[in-house]
Amino acid sequence: MYALDFFKRLTEVPRPSYHEEKARQFFIDEAKALGYDYKVDSAGNLLIRVAGAGTTKDHPVVVLQGHMDMVCEKSPDVVIDFMNDPLSIYEEDGFLKARGTTLGADNGVGVALAFYCATLDNHPPLEILLTVDEEVGMTGADKMQAGFFTGKRLINLDSGQIGVITTGSAGGDDAIITLPITTESAYLATIELSIEIVGLKGGHSGGNIGLNRLSATKILGNLLTQYQKAGFDFRIQSIDAGAAANAIARDGKMVLLFADAEQAKSASEISSTLKSGDGEQLTLKRELKTVGGAHQPFSVSMLTDITYLLSELPHGVRDWQDEQVKLPRTSSNVASIKLVDNQIKIVVSYRSFDNAMLPMMKQTITDIVAKSSAQMVSAGDYPAWPPKEQSELRAVCSRVYAHLFGQKPLEVARHVGLECGYWERLSPGVDVISIGPNLFDLHSPTERVEIATIGQMQSLLAAMMAEL
Asked: Which coenzyme or cofactor does it need (predicted)?
């Protein structure tokens, strides 16, 4: 299977966000070997031009679009250098998976399918449009200039469910919250309590947020709040949770110092009061250790601010587009808390189908942050992609899918951030749909792609290319 084999080769190429240079060269080398023309813009986006072939060679251009980067997440026990190491992949029960890391099927399989279309006997002129940094704010699409691609029919290959045509997507933004480190010079501690969160599913903060999965960041905030309400005398030595802005925080750990041993023991017996809506089995690994002496933990004011922010920053679904199918209209994700450059950094990713809701969400977060010592900046919003009433691409895709597989595909808008809103901005009137194979647990180490649906996508695209 061409696309599967192509993608397997791609898993040997490191391609974390902000560092797609090896992947871009991989795609350029493929284009050169096949005799295709290409160009790269100042942001690092790549466009590959393929002449038409067969019965549709003189038809209007079709753009096949995906992104080069991948979310790099791993299980705590896995050792990997995502900048240099290949992924360890394997097939199991009809799925392609990676051992203890994200697979990068989002969006590597989509890119592989774009290259597959170029090998067909019948296809219109193609522009394979590959962007950088989609997973970290879509900055590649945001920096692209009008005219970089010319086609007015664009198929985005970054969806994750066969038999579904995505017709619209949410817009969003990331709030970057920073809190300068201040320490207490000589806190007299007797006990160190370390708490590690395991057993959460994590997942995509758009596609999975409606399932009410637990977030490690919110669990840490919940525990800190309970300790403060209990009147415990403690400080934060270290705290860390989450990773990518568009992933629900799956792992987290904090180390606390207690002045009183009995209070530390009591704290170690307190559990999170947050409940999962998706059957997760939360485990809190706790360890008490005698330390004694003077320490330099985060200050009391930092403890207060961190507890307040993790507790009060909005997380989950704010309102629903369609609650029956668990499709949110507006949501937010307290994605991570990290120590970066001598400051605590908290990232909140929020999104909505309604562009008017984005400034309202930003104001809500701004008001919360203003009650602390933290500062907030915006990573830069990306536009929603509102569905169109009429679409030639949607009609062709629906008709061809029904002919091939005996049933009509669903046509849905998705609560994820796709780059499609940028294409309407750059090329008003462009006809856009998004399709893809079955992907599961995106942005987590259990990410997988159903192999048979890659073959179905090849069949669907081949039939579409022969008609468009």
From this structure: Co(2+); Zn(2+)
Closest-CA residue to 321 (of 413, 421, 205):
413
Taking the C-alpha atoms of residue 106 and residue 84, their distance in angstroms, rounded to an integer, is 19
CATH 3.30.70.360 domain position(s) in the chain: 173-378
Assess if CATH 3.40.630.10 describes domain 2-170+384-465. Answer: yes
CA distance 348 to 177: 8
Identify which of 365, 350, 357 has the alpha carbon closest to the alpha carbon of residue 206.
350
CB neighbours of 449 closer than 8 A, spacing ≥ 6?
A: 95, 96, 103, 105, 109, 437, 438, 439, 440
Which residues touch 231 (CB under 8 Å, ≥6 apart)?
A: none
Where are the CATH 3.40.630.10 domain residues in the chain?
Answer: 2-170+384-465
Burial class, 373, CB count within 10 angstroms (exposed 0-12 / middle 13-18 / buried 19+) = middle
User: Does 107 sit behind a cis peptide bond, omega within 30 degrees of 0 on the bond before it?
Assistant: yes
Is residue 237 within 8 Å of residue 256, measured between CB atoms?
yes
What DSSP line would sit under 297-318, residue for residue? -B-HHHHHHHHHHHHHS--EEE
| pLDDT-derived band at 404, boundaries 50, 70, 90 | very high
State pTM to two decimals: 0.74
- Give the bridge partners for 188, in sequence order: 294
Task: Find the farthest-apart pair of alpha carbons in the chain and give their distance in angstroms, rounded.
Answer: 81
Please identify, in words, the CATH class of the domain defined by 173-378: alpha beta
- Contact, 350 vs 361, CB < 8 A? yes
